[in-house]
Amino acid sequence: MARPVRIEYEGAVYHVTARGNERSKIFFSGKDYAKFKKYLGEAKEKYGFLLNAYVLMTNHYHFIVETPEKNLSRIMHYLNGSCTTYTNLKRKRSGHLFQGRYKAIVVDKENYLLELSRYLHLNPVRAKMVEKPEEYPYSSYTSFISASPESMVNVGAVLGMFSKSEKQARKLHQAFV
């Protein structure tokens, strides 16, 4: 049976996830998370997408990505391919790092973006890795509550749904999450 065709179009917003093969780890150390974020930054530079939120868990990740161009498959090929090559070389392993293809669900930005952002940022709390989302170092949550967000995270899409005042929006977002 043929694989279903991916839906890609200009201006699409996606909830993207990928899981480790056999639910195994894809991140083994802090350096692995940092390297993945480096690849994510390179992919942003190369393909010009907007990263509205992310969380990197030990065996999977979630993004909210907006693509001004119709290029999600190229973005993900670059990102997952780079991560797999890096991990295989570093860990002296071979084969698949990720379980099957990444999943990308088209998101209605107006109606689902806030809930999805909260879902991502609460992932480490639900997994009992931390008590509060701001304690987890591998997510974009602190970019939403801090006055100095990570440059690769587009906090405006989410915060703009709360208030025109950035300071007020940060407070409202924190209370919402």
H/E element string?
EHEEHEHHHH
Strand order of the largest sheet: 2-3-1-4
Major sheet description: 4 strands, antiparallel
Total of DSSP H or I helical runs spanning 4+ residues: 6
Q: What is the domain tally?
A: 1
Could you tell me the mean pLDDT? 93
Tell me the structural class. Answer: alpha+beta
| Overall 3D shape | globular
CATH class: Alpha Beta
> What is the rounded distance between the termini?
41 Å
Oligomer: single chain
Provide structural commentary:
- This protein has 177 residues and is an alpha+beta fold.
- The chain has one domain: Transposase IS200-like (Alpha-Beta Plaits, 2-Layer Sandwich), CATH 3.30.70.
- Helices cover 42% and strands 15% of the residues.
- The chain is built from six helices and four strands.
- Strands 2-3-1-4 form a four-stranded antiparallel beta sheet.
- A hairpin with a 3-residue loop joins strand 2 and strand 3.
- Helix 1 runs antiparallel to helix 2.
Write the layout of secondary structure elements.
Elements (H helix, E strand, L loop, with lengths): L11 E8 L10 H18 L2 E7 L3 E8 L4 H19 L12 E4 L2 H18 L14 H5 L10 H4 L6 H11 L1
Antiparallel strand pairs: 1-3, 1-4, 2-3
Helix pairs in contact: 1-2
